[in-house]
């Protein structure tokens, strides 16, 4: 492949930031309310555990924070870190839920992994956590994805 | 019909894989949670039981696994195997539910067969199974299909 | 209007089939389940009872069969037969419900008549029947129609 | 402005029909059922009470008739009559509800006024009436409007 | 079919208007310009010449008037008159072109018949007339544009 | 119709501004370039010359200014002034072109009137002016593009 | 797989009609005009020449007939006959062009094979024939337009 | 940057109106009904508290007024005033709720801040207030936003 | 407005980066080809020259680089710098063209300013530069295409 | 991160196939025609040359083959191989063109890299090659068309 001189002057700080990252929590400024934060992260990619071929997904997180909220840049770098991991659709979606629940102890959280088609089959994984004492809103997932076809 | 030499060098391993396939179950890595797996399989085709003419559908499966999940490649080949069967819309949709419930004993499962128009009428079949002891999420089917017209 | 010779060689079997048709019921192969059949019939037309001008609609039927299902070709011809009838929006939608309930004794049925604009007003009629002993799914009508404009 | 001779030969019967109109009720042919009639009326316009500048809306009516249904032509002319009235978004939407409830004594009715943007803000008013003894369907408003942007 | 008393009080003036109609031309108020008029007529229906079963189409007309324009109500009634004719897709589209060219002697005209699916095949017929001396715009067929938003 | 006290406190300055308005031209700051200005004005309404019933349209203007550009507020008020005029689709679209060409002497201009359906027929009028010495861009009519996403 | 008794009563006439079919030509009623016929055939399926796994496509045909037009039912059955053939994307699209040109000797024809994704890659093949003496319209490939509304 | 003379003649009244504005309440003309007012305000912008870079959002407000409604122009100017504030997604959405609840004492209110993507992540904040004695409609948020991609 | 402690810890580096920025050019690695770079920048905002109220636009740039390409981060900061400028729609779109042409001396460039509605009128400005010796592609403005599906 | 035993049994053959792959050419079965092959490859990802952070794009290839066509599986693996390369938008798009032209010596080819937003700016690169003796179709870039319905 032909490549220009310019493109050989490459930087590596992105690799370093992803490797050094830890999910970070910040104090919730509005703990008195059960408000919902919804994230859509369309650039998730990982590797198939069986083959090593790439998989792609949009990750959607909805949660009601308790004492803490997730810091956005650390969440982005956390997602970036899946790029070179071999992990199944079910495992990555559930692992994101596990990791965010462990960090934040939210009142309620749902994670959706909306994966692209493999072997003519599209897969979407939805997994949810709730503090047993929580009775606030659990908004339906309105917008799974555009329709096939 | 004219055809090039190249196209005559045909392979048959797809036929063999479809014929030899059995639906396969794998252990569920997250049995402690009632999470939902959603599949969309847009390339279903079978034959009309009355005429033998082809029918086309998107099959949509939602389920909450218990001890086992379905292996994706075996599901694809299972769907491929309907291509030469003569079977009605109701029968194919219910048979897919029967076969997956028999394999997986899921907590809950719904199968939708979203067929293309025949005789100016579009048909969608929705059929569902639930373990009587299951009380977790049964997500509404959000995205039946794009609107006519 | 100019017309070619070819187009004068006309056939009449469609008229005969529509005139001779009766809605026909077939046995339900899966009576043990409360599954839902959804039909969309976009080519309904009838005549306005006040003027005789044509009306157009999409008819949408959802039902849970009990012992019988409707045969599709007879349903198509039944719908065709409205072409020359003068009947209001409410009357046609309710009449289709009456006729299908009388034929099938379903567990539950809903008929929607989604008519095109007349006098700058779009009308959609929704009417429903349920056997009092039925407690299964009554799926919400997801997809009324595309938005105006 | 230049104008052709033809366009000067103007008629006035529309003005007369709008001025003479009264909302008209007809007997409900299916009073034994709680069926829903849905209207969309995209060509509503009135005048801002503060300035006199034009406002535009789509009016959406859903109702379950009791003994009477509204006659469509009289409804169209009733809507036309708002063209020269100065009335707020809240007042017009609630007034349409009041007038139709007074005419029809429906079992249930909802009126939505979906107005176009003014001052960078889009406003939608939703107002509802129910006979206290009514326990039938109150269909959710599926299709508020197309998304911004 | 059950029917209410009300729906038996039927009117016939629509039949009479359609039967008595002739396509009507009016003077073009702007003959000095080559401007384009585009019509979309989504409620065309006729009968298949081979079977008598109904066909449905949207008819689209674009033309550059010369001395005359078509009167809209007479065009609507002309289109209504196809409802009971047995005529092929090609013949109806070309006949509409012939009739409008004969009436108007336009500088340029194109008629499209955009028919619904029959036998799994959708058909669109496009046919065009131009006065040999005409050198003005012949706009490509594309839907002009949805309204803002 | 019931109405609150508040809504009776009405203002009239909008009427006055519309009545007093004249289309206004401003100097073009970039006369050395053939750049295109595109306007979409979705809230046009006038009255049918035959009946007095309301008509609705989106007006689309594209032009290449020469020495002057149109002032936007005066254009809005000019469009508002059609609300009480009885004028045909062809006449209003061509009149807007005439008036803007008279005001601005542009290098090139096109006006489109995209009217809502009347009598089941949608009408779009396209009319164009060019200075004979102009040889710059005449962009095809297409909606520029939705924002990303 | 479980199957009801009813679904075992299968018919075979579709197989027979497909096997016996020959593409059939009819006289063109409007040979004096260069009009365009556009077909969309969304239910094409064949088998991959390398593996035997199914492929799916929409076939789009545009042509300007000369003396003959293709009969629609024979075209549908011709397309059905690809279901059990092993043939590449390029070969099937070009073969359809070859066969229709051989049958009809059209003035101009274009065939598009718009295949679904395989190996994460979507493929669309476009191939065209023109009689060297033909100078009429060769419409660009674009979806004609959605219906109004 | 080059700039014309005209563009240097700038006005400042917008700055003054925004600076002088206070959210203003008006009496609710229909306090006897629990009706819902829905606002969409697509042109919200503020500054990131960490960096000072701009953020963009659509703000969506739904509320059931009690004795008072918010005056629209004062709401627009209130939203304009965020342009130069450094404030987080959570803080701005909750602050709008706080300020409107303090002004209006509504029966129920929900505010959504639908922010554009930052660091590949889209964020939507939903926060809600209800008077404990309120038992009327709390309409689901139907239309969060268009889908990614 | 209520605000949490956390949100008071604000940073200013964004202000500094925007203030210090200069548009920056990099060498074009592929000067031997006339390739086209297309940018969409949906988060442009400036201030109205007459009032000081905010305006919003998507800026779209297409260009064929010669010896240099624009560095993306400096382009983003350049666009950010319009936030506090009072400038008209025509002036900002033409100024962006002027500044980029001065920086890059491209073979061809087009800038579009697609502004949101003001006074019920949407405005889109399109302005273009070409080196007189350039004869390569000048792609029509159309949104490239949505992703598959 | 929690992970199940199952997900630790990982395979590596995908890595090996990507590493060993070479773009492969096959004979063109229809060299006598200038037909167009269009590919859409939505799962392209590489790494930013400046930072190492991931970039995402859809790659679109259109070409008219001469003696050879590209083998699809080798094209997929070639695209996969960009996952760990640090390369700019311009360089990757032009490199794909260079590599495919070197392999196939096509009559004409165009490659588009449609990248996701970075720093609020979306970038699309379009680059093209033509054999100087080629005079056949060079289809404009437009998405072919959605399937019917
Ligand atoms: Ca906070
Ligand atoms: Ca599609
Ligand atoms: Ca697992
Ligand atoms: Ca059955
Ligand atoms: Ca719209
Ligand atoms: Ca009635
Ligand atoms: Ca959008
Ligand atoms: Ca006229
Ligand atoms: Ca200026
Ligand atoms: Ca014919
Ligand atoms: Ca539409
Ligand atoms: Ca009020
Ligand atoms: Ca998309
Ligand atoms: Ca470069
Ligand atoms: Ca080949
Ligand atoms: Ca559609």
Automatic annotation (TrEMBL), chains A, B, C, D, E, F, G, H, I, J:
Pfam families: QueF. The active site is at 48 (thioimide intermediate), 55 (proton donor). It comes from the Bacteria. The keyword Nucleus does not apply. Pathway: tRNA modification; tRNA-queuosine biosynthesis. It is found in: Cytoplasm. The keyword S-adenosyl-L-methionine does not apply. GO terms for biological process: tRNA queuosine(34) biosynthetic process. One of its GO terms (cellular component) is cytoplasm. InterPro entries: GTP-CH-I_C/QueF, NADPH_dep_7-cyano-7-deazaG_red, QueF, QueF_type1. It catalyses: 7-aminomethyl-7-carbaguanine + 2 NADP(+) = 7-cyano-7-carbaguanine + 2 NADPH + 3 H(+). Belongs to the GTP cyclohydrolase I family. QueF type 1 subfamily. Catalyzes the NADPH-dependent reduction of 7-cyano-7-deazaguanine (preQ0) to 7-aminomethyl-7-deazaguanine (preQ1). This is NADPH-dependent 7-cyano-7-deazaguanine reductase.
């Amino acid at each position: 492949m032909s490549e220009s001189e310019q493109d050989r002057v490459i930087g590596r700080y992105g690799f370093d930031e992803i490797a050094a990252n830890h999910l970070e929590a910040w104090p919730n400024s509005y703990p008195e309310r059960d408000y919902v934060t919804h994230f859509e992260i369309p650039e998730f990619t990982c590797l198939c555990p069986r083959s090593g071929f790439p998989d792609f997904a949009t990750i959607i997180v909805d949660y009601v924070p308790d004492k803490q909220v997730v810091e956005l840049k650390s969440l982005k770098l956390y997602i970036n870190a899946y790029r070179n991991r071999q992990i199944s659709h079910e495992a990555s979606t559930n692992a994101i839920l596990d990791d965010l629940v462990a960090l934040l102890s939210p009142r309620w959280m749902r994670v959706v992994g909306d994966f692209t088609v493999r072997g003519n089959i599209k897969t979407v994984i939805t997994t949810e956590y709730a503090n047993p004492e929580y009775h606030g809103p659990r908004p339906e997932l309105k917008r799974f994805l555009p329709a096939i076809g």
